TrEMBL record, chains A, B:
Name this polypeptide is given: GntR family transcriptional regulator
PROSITE patterns noted in UniProt: HTH_GNTR
Higher taxonomy: Bacteria, Pseudomonadati, Pseudomonadota, Betaproteobacteria, Burkholderiales
Annotated PANTHER family: MANNOSYL-D-GLYCERATE TRANSPORT/METABOLISM SYSTEM REPRESSOR MNGR-RELATED, MANNOSYL-D-GLYCERATE TRANSPORT_METABOLISM SYSTEM REPRESSOR MNGR-RELATED
Stretch list, region Disordered: 1-30
Domain of life: Bacteria
Keyword set, alphabetical order: DNA-binding, Transcription, Transcription regulation
CDD domains xref list: WHTH_GntR (cd07377)
Native species: Janthinobacterium aestuarii
HTH gntR-type domain span: 60-128
SUPFAM superfamilies given in the database record: Chorismate lyase-like, Winged helix' DNA-binding domain
Length: 293, 293
DNA sequence: GAGTGGTCTAGACCACCCG
DNA sequence: GGGTGGTCTAGACCACTCG
């Protein structure tokens, strides 16, 4: 057994045979802990199939490998949303790398909102149960006054077979079981959003109208705690359309009123699509806010 | 004179009187270069008015101060868009800090798209004259086919006095001189965007219809090279509206066709607003693409 | 006071680019 | 071959939190 438990490929540090710990590369924790010669941790250990040339064809920095390992633990549920993950020092020990390397890995995870750092306390798994997170995916804000979360009224919740277009966007087969949800959202009692959602039936088995109704707060929070599926990012396409009869009735507006149409695909770990959402937004007293940078 | 040229406040490194370079904090470059005692660089030097307590009330990391200094040089035009800035090692020497600190400052500038790093070559000031940058502020992409840049036809270019609403959004006084531009943009010959722009007259003095017409490529490129004003970020508000007579005629569509309305304020260094842009987008064959993360 | 993340330094080596 | 950014390490100290 070498390099204890993990199969990391260290593409850095000397490629010139066994080196004494004092010269060249400094002694790695692995070397001191398991008294393994430095050379054994070097130049391709495992994981990636790399012909032992001077430059690895598939170069991946150590911190990226650490990042992938941490992401795996997040995905597997070893550390659940809202929980504290091990400290940087502890992770460094576990992975046999320096704290700085772990730090860089966590830096990127924090930048991607997978994790949240709090000085003096530790690093926490991000969760949708938070004021901060509520408006990450809801960009419709009132023209005047402070943003707040709308109330939901569910129109329909049923199990259906995925239409071809839905299946294509969600990486399913046409006819696969999906859960269909239709709801209207109200800001201060004014109906403003009519929304249709499709979710993979396999993952969201057991999602019923009752559970949706009794649950207060963002749906992504419910998905996260009840179904272990966390939305990481989303891709949205926006258009202007005219209200059809259905939308007009639900939003209590005239037929033909211009509405903002949004089609969103949300992804969980591994860029796996797990939600398709089609919304119509009434933008007479609200607008879609976007920051370009 | 101490700490040579710059007024950096080092809030780190020992607060316990003069320390020999070998113990405690390692000798700083400043100390070795100007043979200044370490203590002189510590506990409040200048810049920030800090009562000499144990913890500075206005704590600012060194790398943030470096970042601010680099940003100043960008803003002042010391390093122009597209140019190479000094290497990390050189900047470290200039500011009397370690390369790691400069590195962290530049990391943030790169994340904000103010500069671009290229391994083996150096760090470059970002520019709007680049394929990469072209679609950072243009989010309207075709439903099918690859995104490409539209052609412009200018309808109107004139000097006017800023209306109250425009002045408010641009941080001007009502009645201040502004340049008003109206244009239509075509994708593959199809009129798709009608846009009105307001620019501060003071900054964009000398901007004429001729210069706009003869200039090929994104307007932000022209603004950057001809007027020394670089757009850094923008804030956009999006709505759905109906085409009025003017828009319908210019876009060759029926009156009442739903259009996407965008109001955008763009900012340059120091979060100073320097452009107001109001656009109407025809979204029958294009959509506004947005990534949520 | 102990533990956590945050800053700063110094030095080594690697990947990449260009003359 | 020399210069640039990119990675990795090690160690010191600071700011913050909590018991």
């Amino acid at each position: 057994m070498n390099s204890a438990s993990s199969n990391l490929t260290n593409n850095a540090t000397a490629a010139s045979g066994a080196v004494s710990p004092t010269a060249g590369a400094p002694a790695t924790p692995a070397a001191t802990a398991a008294s393994t010669p430095v050379a054994s941790v070097n130049t391709t250990t495992a994981a990636v199939s790399a012909p032992a040339a001077t430059a690895s064809p598939t170069f991946s920095p150590l911190y990226q490998q650490i990042k992938a390992l941490i992401t795996q633990s997040l995905q597997s549920g070893e550390w659940k949303p809202g929980e504290l993950i091990p400290s940087e020092v502890e992770l460094a020990g576990r992975f046999k790398v320096s704290q700085g390397t772990v730090r860089k890995a966590i830096d990127e995870l924090a930048a991607e909102n997978l994790v949240m750092r709090r000085q003096g306390k530790g690093t926490f798994v991000s969760t949708h149960h938070e004021a901060r997170a509520h408006f990450r995916f809801l960009r419709l804000v009132p023209d005047e006054g402070v943003p707040h979360y709308p109330e939901s009224k569910f129109i329909e919740v049923k199990r259906v077979r995925a239409p071809a277009d839905v299946a294509r966007l969600m990486d399913l087969k046409s006819g696969d079981a999906v859960i269909f949800i239709k709801r209207v959202q109200y800001f201060d009692g004014v109906p403003t959003i009519v929304e249709e959602l499709w979710l993979p039936g396999l993952i969201f088995k057991g999602l019923t109208a009752e559970r949706l109704v009794e649950y207060k707060g963002p749906m992504y929070g419910l998905f996260e705690t009840e179904f272990g599926t966390r939305m990481i990012r989303a891709s949205e396409q926006i258009r202007a359309v005219c209200a059809d009869a259905g939308a007009a009735q639900l939003l209590n507006i005239d037929l033909g009123t211009p509405l903002l149409s949004s089609e969103r695909v949300s992804f969980t770990y591994g860029d796996k699509p797990v939600e398709l959402r089609r919304g119509l937004y009434l933008t007479s007293r609200h607008h879609y806010q976007n920051e370009l940078s």
